[in-house]
Structures are given as structure tokens and as C-alpha cells.
Amino acid sequence: MDSPSSPPHRVAVLLLAPAIGFDATIPSLVFSAARTECGEPLYAVDVVTADGAPTTTVEGYGIVPSAGPEALARAQTVIVPGTRNPAARRAGRLDGPAAAAFAAIPAEARVAGICTGAFALAAAGLLDGRRAATHWEQAEAMRALYPRVDVDERSLYVDEGRILTSAGLAAGLDLCLHIVRRDAGAAVAARAARHCVIAPFREGGQAQYIAPHEPPPRADDGIGAALAWARQRLGEPLTVAALARRAGLSERTFARRFAARTGTSPGAWLRAERIAAAQRLLEETALPVDAVAARAGFGTSAALRIRMQAALGTTPSAYRRRFRGVPGGAATGPSGEPGGTRPAATRVRAGAQPSTSPQPSARA
Question: Cα separations (Å) of 344 from 50, 223, 240, 315?
Fold first, then answer.
């Protein structure tokens, strides 16, 4: 595809009202930056609406489409950004104009959903029996509304061949860069990423962005008291027998009631609590990773690395760079503490800036 003589690949960005404004800008940004070494565009992007009229966004501004819905019929790739469209998000179906828009998409066209745009793809039946990503905050809602979809809230994006989906908001950048990489190769995708000042490929998945679940402990029974007690001692050796004794129950009764109360086993609960504790320490303190591992109950940094890689798809140092950051772009040493001898520019990777939470109006 990276050839000046090839006609640009036709992309249609289908906005369903009210659209997530940030998501709506991603495809045009990334695909317009994908060019040959001679500077020739590799994609021609049209922004369309289901009825051809300007559309609203959840942020309150409007978007005027660059082409009518007829552009869908000639599109080779159709991308649906995030949306709060009531029919797709709450009723499990497409409204009339959206259904007509999806019907106009050629059978051979590639279709991708960014963030909650996956709900629209699911409503169109495109995700039945497929694995799909969406914003982690909306994963349970999607499972309930579309039980035939295998919802994956851990991945930044899911490539099922002709059908692709991404996780929330900025994961749309990862998805579009992946499409460019798939179409035109890594070099073109890297050039587009540099133009957009983003990392061409991000470590880990969406799991690392999910806020640790911290249900309030109920100390009104033996189980609640044992949970509260354990949370104060995560850095100490903890066994099921010790938890059962704290609850005043036999181990068998404790395990049965624990599963009924939490939906998981004591061992799995303890691992999740220790991961959450490590996340907080990495975000909020400058403790060396060895100290974080000890306080969270993993013993060594090697054990913490293995557990975080399995649970979150990232390492302690990478997680700290992403979620705590270092003011002023200062470099970090191997333990994640400020320091080191090389110039900061050689150590701070693109995309490692501190993460920021979206404003309420930008929520998926």
C-alpha cells in the first residue's frame, strides 16, 4: 500500500449521535498522517453521519460531516467512534438511520469500533461470536446487553480480521495505528505516530488503566472483619487458616462463605488486593520497587513483576512511569526513583507522560 501510484484507501468515519468528540477526531488525525516516503497520502477520510446532517457530541459542540451517507457504500474501511446513542447503548438495537447506514456498508469492507462504538457494531450483529474490546467502564453493560459478544476489557484493541474494536478513548489511537501498521507496515505507522507525538506501540493492555476495585469492608460479620484485618496486613504472610481463625470459622465454612460473599476464592482475593496495594504504592510513593513488593506482600521485585505482568500486562517500572510520572521529564533509575546518569531525553520514551483522567463530559 506504501506506493504513490496506489489510490488512497477510502475510510468513512460514521458518527452516531451523540458522538464522543475525542474519539471522533482520532481516525482523521492518524490516517491523514499516514503517508508514503514521498509524502503522498495513503488514506482518504470522509466523516459522515447516518442522515447526512450535522451531529452533536457529548461535549456539547456539533460536527459537520464532510460527505453524505453515500460515502459508506464506497468505503473500504468504516470506523465508528464512541457514542451514547440511546438505541445502541441501552436498547440493544440500531435506530432507523443507523440501521440504514450499516446496511450501506459493503460486505467486504473492514469495520472498526472505537471505545463504545463497539456497542453499535454489536447492535448490527457484527460482533456475535467474536471477541471485542470497549471502554472498561462499560464492559459489564455491554455483556448484559449483548450476551453473544465475548467482551474483552483487558486489551487495548482486538483484531478479528475484518472486524476490529478498541478499548476506551485514547485506545482508538492504538487501534488506528495498528490498522496503518497492518496496511502499510511498521515504518509508515511509526512516521504517523511521530507526527501525532504518540507512542507507535504501547506496552500492556487496558487492564492497567482499570481503577483497583475497593469494596467497602463490612465488619458486621466474621468475613467482613477478616477482610478488614487482612487489608491492614498485606505485607505479612497470610493464610486461609489465619483468615478463618480471624473470622471465627472453620476453614471449610470460611471458604464457602467467602466465595458467596466475594465471588472468588481467598487466594485469588488476596492476590488482587496485593496487586491493588502495589498499584497505589507505585502511583503515590517514590519507594523502590523492592520495597513496594515487600509492603504489598510479594516479597521480591521479581515476584511482583511476574504478578503484575499476568494481571495487568505491564511491569512495575512501566506502570509507575505511566501513572506517577516524574515532574519536568526527569529520568528515573531502575527502581523507579528519580536519578540516573544518562540524559533524560534518552530515557523517557514517547507516550510515557503522566496519564490524566478524562473530564466528565468526555466519559464513554
Answer: 48, 49, 46, 20
Report which of 48, 139, 61, 53 is spatially closest to residue 102, judged by C-alpha positions. Answer: 48
Cell of 240: 486461609
Phi, psi (5° rounding) for residue 285? -130, 170
Distance of alpha carbon 255 from alpha carbon 261, whole angstroms: 10
Q: Does domain 9-209 have CATH number 3.40.30.10?
A: no
Task: Give the right CATH number for 222-347 from 1.10.760.10, 2.40.110.10, 1.10.10.60, 3.40.50.300.
Answer: 1.10.10.60
Q: What is the pTM of this model?
A: 0.68
Q: Are 297 and 234 in contact (CB under 8 A)?
A: yes
Beta strands in 97-149, from DSSP E residues, in sequence order:
110-113, 131-132
State the distance between the two ends of the chain, measured CA to CA, in whole angstroms. 33
Structural domain spans, the chain: 9-209, 222-347
Q: What is the CA radius of gyration of the chain?
A: 23
Q: What is the pLDDT along the chain (364 residues), one digit of tens a residue?
A: 655 568 999 999 999 999 999 999 999 999 999 999 999 999 999 999 999 999 999 999 999 999 999 999 999 999 999 999 999 999 999 999 999 999 999 999 999 999 999 999 999 999 999 999 999 999 999 999 999 999 999 889 999 999 999 999 999 999 999 999 999 999 999 999 999 998 887 766 665 566 655 455 454 568 888 998 999 999 999 999 999 999 999 999 999 888 888 778 899 899 989 999 999 999 889 999 999 999 999 999 999 999 998 888 889 999 898 777 544 344 444 333 333 333 332 222 233 333 333 344 456 7
Non-local (6+) Cβ contacts of 182 within 8 A are 159
